[in-house]
Amino acid sequence: MIRQIFGILVGIVLGLGVLPASASTTISALRVGPEPEQTRLVFDLSAAPQYSYFTIDDNLPHRLVIDFKDTKLAVNLATVPTNSLLINKIRTSKPATPGGTRVVIELTQKLTPKLFALTPKDQFGHRLVVDLPGQSIQRSEQVLSVDQLQQRKVTIAIDAGHGGNDPGSIGPTGLQEKRVVLSIAKALAEMINADPGMQAYLIRSGDYYVGLRGRSRKAEEINADLLVSIHADAFTSPKPRGASVWVLSTRRANTELGRLLEDKERLGDVLAGIDSSEAEQNNQLQRMLAGMQLDSIMTIGYEAAKEVVGELAKVTQMHKREPQHASFAVLTAGNVPSMLVETGFISNPAEEKLLASNKHQQQLARAIYNGIRAHFIRKPPDGTSFATSRAIEHVVKRGESLSLIAQRYNTSVAAIKQHNKLNSDTLRVGQKLQIPSSR
């Protein structure tokens, strides 16, 4: 009997030894994110990837072939959206080794890909990142390109937050932040470009992701006078509502909401497969803060933000009635004043409905535009038409005095009286004054 049992056990062991081994790693998802200058693919895996790759360029189509060892594919590649000018098709082919997976990316042009693995971070597991360099999206013809920007118009870089694989916050009915803020950004750009003294450049003109450092870097490349990043707020409770405007702080925000927003902002890079530690970001920020011009840059950003807050208060409820401070990465362009506008809480059901409304989006864009314009009329950059124009028209409002108006436009009561041929300090509501340039 014992021998029989032993024989059965041996047979079972031997039988197990000849069973085909199951793949130890699974590809659970594939995300494709076209960006202006590259396309990033991110494979989500259950374990660290064992892979090799090669390109085929001697016949068409150009191909990038990735071989995953001991890996099974749990993704229907035919359903993965690409939307990239660099990719024709993503498919499988016969694996190089038993139990493996071969992924073939058919390309529209010859290129040199970059592949690297990322270890688990936050809620994300192991990833393989594939960067394909080259123009990946077609910018909308409705917005200015870099080549169309004119010298010494007041230039505003407009950053619509999130995009692509990163939807941002999502409202109770499924409204995505990335779509709302892009609509507001485009409306703002149209208003600015209709102003003869201003021009706008949309950092993100479509549904794709741009890295946080890439957003501030683009504002620097176009020599923007101001960077405005547009977002829609969210919180763990549906109760908070109202707009707010944030400017750069030399320290991390010290409020719960500020910390939550900063963490949400960094999540976008994680979703896109960008692996940048908080320590690295803080070191970069500290190096940037060493610049002697930082105080001036921060002051300009704060003053412009105050104007925008005042205008937003006319069209929507405010969560904060003064500019708030935080160390958002998108605000850390070394020589460009910046602000981040939270247009409302998309997590609040009533405000989500408002943010979905084209009328409200237009009102928010108009308020931001009015605030920006008021700031640059009051303190125009050197060489711009705002700086060289002889006078600015001001319509007197209730409670205003000559001294308050002179202070706002950085001029003197005597200059205003002389320019407008006034014999007294008395003003009437609705009276139009020509404000002489302070330069």
Counted up, domains total 3
How much of the residues is beta strand, in percent? Answer: 15-25%
Helices and strands, in order, run as HEEEEEEEEEEHEHEEHHHEEHHHEHHE
With helices defined by DSSP (H or I, 4 residues minimum), what is the helix count?
11
CATH C-level category of the largest domain? Alpha Beta
CATH fold topology of the largest domain: Aminopeptidase
If you compute it from the alpha carbons, what radius of gyration comes out, rounded to the nearest whole angstrom? 28 Å
Strand arrangement across the biggest beta sheet: 11-10-12-15-13-14
Architecture overview:
With 439 residues, this protein is an alpha/beta fold. The protein has 3 domains: 26-133, Immunoglobulin-like (Sandwich), CATH 2.60.40; 146-378, 3-Layer(aba) Sandwich (Aminopeptidase), CATH 3.40.630; 390-436, LysM domain (Membrane-bound Lytic Murein Transglycosylase D, Chain A, Roll). 31% of the residues lie in helices and 24% in strands. The chain has 11 helices and 17 strands. It has helices at residues 2-18, 177-193, 212-221, 256-271, 278-289, 294-312, 349-355, 358-378, 385-388, 402-408, 413-420, and strands spanning 25-34, 38-45, 51-56, 62-68, 71-73, 87-93, 101-107, 114-118, 126-133, 154-160, 198-202, 226-233, 244-248, 324-326, 338-345, 391-395, 432-436. The strands form 4 sheets. It has a 6-stranded mixed sheet, with helices on both faces. A 5-stranded mixed sheet has the order 5-1-2-9-8, with no helix packed on it. The termini are far apart.
